[in-house]
Amino acid sequence: MKIGIRFKLVFFISVLLLFVIALLSFLVLNGIKIYQNKEAEGILLNQKDMFEQYLDENFSLNNANTNEKFELVRATIFNKPWLRTIPANIYDTKGNLLSGFKPEGKLNENPQKNIMIKNALQDKISYKYDKNIIYFYSPIKYKNNTAAILELQYSTEESNKFYNNIKFLFYYTGSLSLIIGIILGYLYLSNFTKAIYIMKNSIKNIQTKNFYAVKELVRKDELGELSKGLIYMSNTIEKSIKDLETEKDTLSKAVKKLKQMDRQQKDFIGNVSHEFKTPITSIKAYADVMNMYSNDLTLISNGTESISKECDRLTNMVDKILKLSSLDKYDFEIEKNIINIKDLIEQICSRMSGKVKKNKLALNYHVDNLNILSDSESLRHIIINLIDNAVKYNTPGGNINIVCHQQDKLLKIDVEDTGIGMSQEHLSKIFEPFYRAAIHRSSKVGGAGLGLALVENMVKKLQGTISVNSTLGKGTTFSIKLPIYDYHNNLSEPNCLQNTNK
User: Are residues 350 and 317 in the same domain?
Assistant: First the structure.
C-alpha cells in the first residue's frame, strides 16, 4: 500500500506536537510539584526552628529540673499563636506523647510513626507524603542534645487542588492545541504538498514530452525556485529534442544526398568511360587504316589530322572533368576580389575573337562599366564556356551577343547566339553532365557534354543562378545572375553595385 507524502507529513506533525505538548506538560507540572514540596518543606523546617527556639528560651529561663521543665513546656507550648499554625505532636526521647495540637481534634495516625520517630532519635529529619498530608518528624535540640521529637502534619489539600487545576488546564489546552495544530498543519501541508503534486505532474509531462502542460509555481521559496528549475529543464529538453529532430532530419537528408551523389558518381564514371571509349576507338581505327595503307599520303594526312582532333577532344574532356571534380571537392579555392566586369569581358572577347572569326561569326558585346566582388578565374571560365558553346552551335554568318548590366541588386550577364537552338523538352536537362540535347549538337562538333555542367557548378559556387531560353532553329540565350557586394563598407553583405561611369 502506497502512503502519500501528505499523510506522512501530517502524521509526523501530529506525533511531534503530541510529544512537545506532553513533554512541556510533564516538565511544567513536575516543576510545580517540586516547587510545592520545597515550599512545604521550608514551612515545616521553619516551624521546627520556632519550636526549638521556644524550647531553648523556656529551658534557659527556668531553674526547675528537666521533668518539671518538660511539664511546664508541655502545658504552655501550644498557647503561643505562632506555634498553632500547623497541627503538631511532641514526643519525649522514649516516644511517649508529651503534648499535641489540632483544631479539629486528634491528629491523623501515621502507620510509619514509630520508624520515623526512631530516625528522628538518630538526628534525621523524615518526610512522608500521604495524599493531602505531609508527615514531618524532626529532633528538637537543646544544647546540641535531642530533647524531644516534633511531629508536624502539613495539609497539602489546597496546593493539590491548585496542582490538579493546573494539570487539568494543561491537559485541556494541550489537547485543544494538538487538535488545532493538526488542523492547521493539515491545511498548510495540503497547500505545501499540492505544490509538490503539481511538480510531480510536471515531471510526468516532461517524461511524456507534453512540455506545454508544465506549469510554473508562483512561490517565493525553494519550491518556487525548484519549479523555475523544472521549467528551465523542460524548455532545455524540449529544445534539445527539437535540435535532435532537426539534426536527425538533416542527417537523413545528408544520407539521402550521399546516396544520390553515389549514384550520380557511378553514372558519372560510366558516362566518362563511354565518352572516352568513342575517341579512343576512332584513334585506333585511324591508326589501323594508316598502318594498312602506309603508301597513301592523303589518307595518312587526313588520318593524322583526325587523330590530332580526337586527342584535342580527349585533352579538353579531361580538363573539364578535372575542373568539375575539383569544384565538388574544394570549396576554399574560390578567392573573391574586386573585378571590373567590362575589362574582364573585353579580355575574354579579345581572346575568343580568333575562334569566332574562324567560324565566320560576329561577336558583339554591350557591357556597363561596373565593379563586382567575385572570383575572377571562375567568372572567366563561365563566360568562355558560354561563348565557346555559342560558337559550336551557331550557324555560319551568325551572331554572338553579350549583354551585361545591373538588375536590382544583381549583376545580369546574357550570352545569346543565333544558332540551331533546342527544343523545350531538353532545357531542364541541359546542365546534366554528358547530356546531349540532340545528336547533331554534340557529336558533330566533338562536344563531351560537360561544359554546361561545369558552368552551372561554378555559378552556384559564386552564389548565383543560371537559366536558359532557347527556340529550335532560332538560337539560345544563357542568363547568369550574380550577387553584388559593397566592397567599400562590408564585403560580406549584399548591397548596391557601384557604377564607375562618370
Answer: no
Sheet holding 97-101, edge to edge: 97-101, 88-91, 145-155, 133-142, 126-130
User: What cell does 64 get?
Assistant: 526547675
Q: Are residues 459 and 356 in the same domain?
A: yes
What's the distance, CA 92 to chain centroid?
A: 94
pLDDT digits 0-9 by tens, 93-137: 887 887 777 766 556 677 777 888 888 888 888 888 888 888 899
Check: CB of residue 19 under 8 Å from CB of residue 177.
Answer: no
Per-residue pLDDT of 215-228, as tens digits, reads 776 767 777 777 77
Q: Are 121 and 147 in contact (CB under 8 A)?
A: no
- CB within 8 A of 293, min separation 6: which ones? 299, 300
DSSP code for 110: P
Task: Tell me how far apart the alpha carbons of residues 128 and 116 are, in angstroms, rounded to a whole number.
Answer: 9
Residues spanned by the domain of 57 = 5-174
Identity of the residue numbered 424: Q
CATH number for position 401:
3.30.565.10
For 37-91, the three-class secondary structure string (H helix, E strand, C coil) is HHHHHHHHHHHHHHHHHHHHHHHHHCCCCHHHHHHHHHHHHHHCHHHCCCCEEEE
Half-sphere exposure of 402 (CA within 13 A, CB side): 25
Residues 17 and 144 both lie in one domain: yes
| Residue among 64, 51, 131 nearest 91 (CA) | 51
Task: For residue 103, give the C-alpha cell.
Answer: 483544631
What is the C-alpha radius of gyration for the chain, rounded to an integer number of angstroms? 62
**Residue bearing cell 521529637:** 149
- pLDDT tens by residue, 60-99: 655 545 555 556 566 566 666 767 778 888 888 887 887 7
The angle subtended at Cα 147 by Cα 141 and Cα 151, nearest 5°, is 80
Task: Answer positive or negative: Cα dihedral of 490, 491, 496, 498.
Answer: positive
Whether 296 and 230 share a structural domain: yes
How many domains does the chain fold into?
Answer: 3
d(CA 403, CA 390): 14
